[in-house]
Amino acid sequence: MELYFAPMACSIATRIALYEMGKGDEASFHRVALASKTLEDGADFYAINPKGQVPALRLDNGEVLTENAAILQYVADLKPDAGLAPAYGTMERYRLQELLNFIGSELHQKVLATIFNPAAPPEAKAYARDEVAPVKFAMLAEAVKDKAFLIGNRFTVADAYAFFVLSLCPFFGIDIARWPSLEAYFKGLSARPAVARAAAEEMALMKPS
Ligand SMILES: N[C@@H](CCC(=O)N[C@@H](CS)C(=O)NCC(=O)O)C(=O)O
């Protein structure tokens, strides 16, 4: 399988999942320049994902899957024993989908994507950062109160996606220290070998060469 990614973008959650499962060697990673929508060889990324967004995952049968929530569950289901997603049909699986949607739509898009978007007016950015973020991040903080993971006592792909969101907070004017449970949760995630490896590799790609 092939993962189309951009350094420290939300595609890092899929890289983390692959490393957590010991499947990093079974994937190839293609860097996408999101500004120009091109790959490193100059190829047009729109030809791979017409949405122009990462992550995109090319499966071994050639199909391309998009959207974090779908890709993360697909990858987790490649190795159910790794426990990155609760089994289909269980209530916990619906909890995972609930969390992936919350992280994707409320935290990632409503807050971070608005603050990041150069076309968003300053008022929209300030609203996302000062009005929406405190409410939504408080919900995530509540979900990890006295807990190391979002679901039960196991790392899941929801934690991988939450790691991405929390890792960007300092760069987006959101101080997670105001929620001690969130700060402790992020610290715990960051210390996981697979998470630390993915973050170090992608941070290194961001350094100017
Ligand atoms: N709905 C998509 C959104 C993915 C997304 O926002 N990706 C960002 C990077 S974190 C991106 O590719 N941005 C470039 C763009 O939207 O043109 C998903 O959940 O996978």
Written description of the protein model:
A five-stranded mixed beta sheet has the order 3-2-1-4-5, covered by helices on one side. It has two domains: 2-83 and 195-206, Glutaredoxin (3-Layer(aba) Sandwich); 91-192, Glutathione S-transferase Yfyf (Class Pi), Chain A, domain 2 (Up-down Bundle), CATH 1.20.1050. It is built from seven helices and five strands; from the N terminus they run βαββββαααααα. The chain starts with a strand and ends with a helix. The protein has 209 residues and is α+β, with helices and mostly antiparallel strands. Helices cover 50% and strands 9% of the residues. It is globular and about 45 Å long. The structure holds glutathione. Glutathione binds next to α3.
Number of structural domains: 2
The CATH class name of the largest domain reads: Mainly Alpha
Strand order of the largest sheet: 3-2-1-4-5
Shape annotation? globular
DSSP summary: helix tally: 7
List the keywords:
alpha+beta, Glutaredoxin, 2 domains, 7 helices, binds glutathione
